[in-house]
Automatic annotation (TrEMBL):
<keyword id="KW-0067">ATP-binding</keyword>
<dbReference type="GO" id="GO:0016887">
    <property type="term" value="F:ATP hydrolysis activity"/>
</dbReference>
<dbReference type="InterPro" id="IPR027417">
    <property type="entry name" value="P-loop_NTPase"/>
</dbReference>
<feature type="region of interest" description="Disordered">
    <location>
        <begin position="1"/>
        <end position="24"/>
    </location>
</feature>
<protein>
    <recommendedName>
        <fullName>ABC transporter domain-containing protein</fullName>
    </recommendedName>
</protein>
<dbReference type="InterPro" id="IPR003593">
    <property type="entry name" value="AAA+_ATPase"/>
</dbReference>
<dbReference type="Pfam" id="PF00005">
    <property type="entry name" value="ABC_tran"/>
</dbReference>
<dbReference type="GO" id="GO:0005524">
    <property type="term" value="F:ATP binding"/>
</dbReference>
<keyword id="KW-0547">Nucleotide-binding</keyword>
<dbReference type="InterPro" id="IPR003439">
    <property type="entry name" value="ABC_transporter-like_ATP-bd"/>
</dbReference>
<feature type="compositionally biased region" description="Basic and acidic residues">
    <location>
        <begin position="1"/>
        <end position="11"/>
    </location>
</feature>
<feature type="domain" description="ABC transporter">
    <location>
        <begin position="33"/>
        <end position="240"/>
    </location>
</feature>
């Protein structure tokens, strides 16, 4: 790792634990699925990962590395509140995820999962503009500041030239960039991206990962990315 995360948080409390607040922290987290049983209520639990004590901090790009089927997507879905934890706690910015209101979570946290998105008839600019929704209030109208943020986010991921294209016509790699732009347009403190480089060619993989690391450092974001790209993770990530 090029950057020793432990160097940044040398301060500890009397129990030896970190004194840093905020960040994305889990304690004893178990993630997985509950099978539905129509006759017997809740059904059985199938844990995919258990006993996870994870920390991701502001200003750092944290990478979740694991082979196919390891549980990265399951963990990502749980960290953003889409899947209930089977056990343990998740704290985001010092607040228990289970207690966070959906509207405050939407302003704080942006997520890009691997699910296919149907953009309908939206242009690329309009699709990225959806990221502004938590900030637009009752009318949903974008102000000049919102428009500027969307343009910036598209340019940041190298998709500025696609802005007027119908989003439904994008290639997989182009769509991946635009969805990343939508997440950045949200101006969140926390960004979770599940395999954001999966469809990208090698130069674009490096460029996007370096961009995410720089955004984390320059804007103090907490960015968590899953990947099975070992080399890139080790070269660029602040914590793996
Ligand atoms: N909806 C579901 N219900 C039950 N089990 C599931 C469900 N989705 C995934 N799983 C199982 O959970 C395990 C972890 O899957 P997950 O998709 O989280 O892994 P991953 O690390 O993201 O893999 P990949 O790198 O292939 O995307 C797998 O064994 C998978 O079959």
């Amino acid at each position: 790792m090029p950057h020793d995360r432990h160097h940044d948080r040398a301060a500890t409390d009397t129990t030896g634990g970190p004194v840093r607040s905020g960040g994305l922290v889990t304690q004893g987290l178990a993630v997985g699925y509950r099978t539905r049983s129509p006759r017997r209520g809740r059904g059985a639990e199938r844990a995919v990962l258990a006993g996870l004590d994870l920390e991701a901090w502001s200003g750092e790009l944290t990478v979740l590395l694991g082979p196919n089927g390891a549980g990265k997507s399951t963990l990502m879905r749980t960290l953003c509140g889409l899947l209930p934890p089977l056990d343990g706690r998740i704290r985001i910015g010092g607040t228990d995820l289970a207690q966070a209101s959906p509207s405050s979570l939407a302003r704080q946290l942006a997520v890009v999962l691997t699910d296919r998105v149907d953009p309908g008839l939206l242009s690329v600019r309009e699709l990225a503009g959806l990221g502004r929704h938590p900030h637009t209030g009752f009318t949903g109208r974008l102000t000049a500041v919102d428009h500027a943020t969307v343009e910036w986010s598209l340019r940041a991921v190298g998709a500025g030239h696609l802005a007027d294209r119908p989003a439904a016509e994008l290639s997989d790699g182009e769509r991946q960039r635009v969805l990343t732009a939508r997440a950045l347009a949200q101006e969140p403190e926390f960004v979770l991206l599940d395999e954001p480089t999966a469809f990208l060619d090698v130069p674009s993989r490096v460029a996007l990962t370096v961009l995410l690391r720089d955004l984390a450092r320059d804007r103090g974001l907490t960015i968590v990315v899953s990947t099975h790209d070992l080399e890139l993770a080790l070269r660029v990530a602040d914590a793996v």
